[in-house]
Amino acid sequence: MTHPTDIGRVLAPTSHLRTALHLAAAGVPVLPLRAGKVPFGNCPACAKNACGGRPNMKTPGPCTCPAPCHGWAAAATDPGVINSPKWARAWWEAAEVAYHPGGAGLTVVDLDNAEAIAWARKTLPATRTVTTPRGEHWIYRGTMASSNAVRPGVDIKSLMQYARWLGPGVGVTDALPDAVRALAVREPLPVRRAPQTLSVPLRGQEGGCRHRTPTYLDRGITMAVQQITAARSAVHATVYRTFLAVLSTHGRCGCLTDAHVTRLFTAAQAKGESPRHCTDAWTNARTTLGL
Questions:
Q1: Which of 41, 98, 157, 284 gives 20 to 30 Å between its CA and that of 244?
Q2: CA 290 to the chain's CA centroid
Q3: pLDDT per position as a tens digit, 146-187
Q4: How far does Cα 256 stand from its chain's mean position?
Q5: In this predicted model, which residue has the larger pLDDT, 1 or 49?
Q6: Is the pLDDT confidence value at 285 over 90?
Q7: 172-185: buried (b, 16+ CB within 10 Å) or exposed (e) per residue?
Q8: How many Å separate Cα 73 from the centre of its chain?
């Protein structure tokens, strides 16, 4: 017979296990968390994945340590693993259940406060939403690299990251939009301090235009301007990627002129970019391409 003081200890792991097994049956890799959202960390015998863990694995490596290890990579869908003696103590000590979004083919946009939520409602497509103690999780179908602090109060949890399971939420899970992917784009730092005015070399290194008519170039510049103008978020990343695309196509043949670059800079500045940011992005794109 269960003693009354043990009821909490019996119900807690049973509830967590039931949730974990239900999620695992749906293909969602799960793991237990300690209080404070802390995963059961690497044990000394398995530090740095010495037991065979891989960065993209959904189940633990073939180790014999007494508790789940590898943090997010310990997330499993195999009920035999989840219910194994190796995990038993972890479930007794667990405060809640977490899951690996990337392993389930998902991306979580973690919004930590009201300002971040307001930004998301204005900027991102509607999708399945889960209420958290401080804000909301917006869940999209698709995976990407995880990244913290992509903007104030916003983290991205997908591959190689875990998120707390806080319920199924409401709404329909939408496909991962480009606006979320763009948040994680990191522009390389300038090799040198770029000038604040447009004074960058425009002539290519190979000579001889590869384009049959000037119309091809004009159409490319027009499309680039439209892409910058249509940006709803991550304007700086969009400008850099657009400059990179223009230069990769037209930067080596010598056909770009000051007029073409001015059109691109004007479009970027209309979206709030400063002249210096435009020049930095242009310089970084040229450096990336070796121009």
A1: 157
A2: 27
A3: 888 888 999 999 987 899 999 999 999 999 998 898 888 765
A4: 34
A5: 49
A6: no
A7: ebbebbebbbbbbe
A8: 17
